[in-house]
What we know:
By secondary structure, this protein is mainly beta. The protein is built from one helix and 22 strands.
Amino acid sequence: MPTRPLHLMLIVAVAVPFIAAVAAGPASAGVAVQADIVQVIETSAFNPPSPDPSGVALRGGKIYVSDAEVEETKVWKKKNVFIVSRTGELLKTFATTRFSKEPAGLDATKKQLIFSDDDIDKIFFVRPGKDRRFGTRDDKVRSFGTRRFGCNDPEGVALGGGFLFISEGTDAKVFRLSPGRNGIFDGVGPKGDDRVRSFNTDTPALNQPNPEGIEYRPSSDTLFIVSNRQNWHVTETTIRGALVQTIEVTQNGDPLELHSPAGLAWGKASDSNAKHLYIVDRRVDNSADPDENDGILVEISF
Length: 302
């Protein structure tokens, strides 16, 4: 499939003084590279299973997977976050239902987990309490809403470079938040003082018409973006939306068509000290097939 030229449009998300649009760079920067599959982990085979994995993050040598749809399925066992070894062994599970039934996006740091909820349109920051375990009653949770700055469908979330990035599925945008004077991410006024910029990622621009997954790459200060409506590749951009490269996922040299890729994580490989990209694929949606249980986690190198 040919790579389309990049011509991002300038957008102002809403009439809030904290928000500005970001212009894209030149299209000539984009190149296409091929990625090879390292391993495929069937999240559907977990016990309990994750039929629709939507978020993924790397933390402390482990893989964290969130599932925003499992509570709507017949395999729901009151667990929607799955902690997995790098080789795919399910280690622990817990639930976010105390504050979110739709943990669509996920990112992690040493101290906290960050979730996006695309149902109530909020971002949650979760830290463990005295027991040092996630998913228990003493977790410390804070949040802010995204609707006030025009983000009405927060799908993916990524922290990096001093910014918080949110991919918005409905309007195909990426929002870049920087903290205000208080030094924390808390949304825009009246309660928050974050500064917000956005760039548009519609089909003519980056071939990502519904960006559900986003991840930050520290070494290059760039973003990975994936869309469940354009499932043959991952797009890498600058943090301002200029195309860097298109990454085509292949298996044995042939293109691999992911069905509904939803989340991304960048970090240490499962088999070496190299850096690999991890992608969760929801496959068939439960709204199309209420009996589906086919989620996967794919690790790729490029």
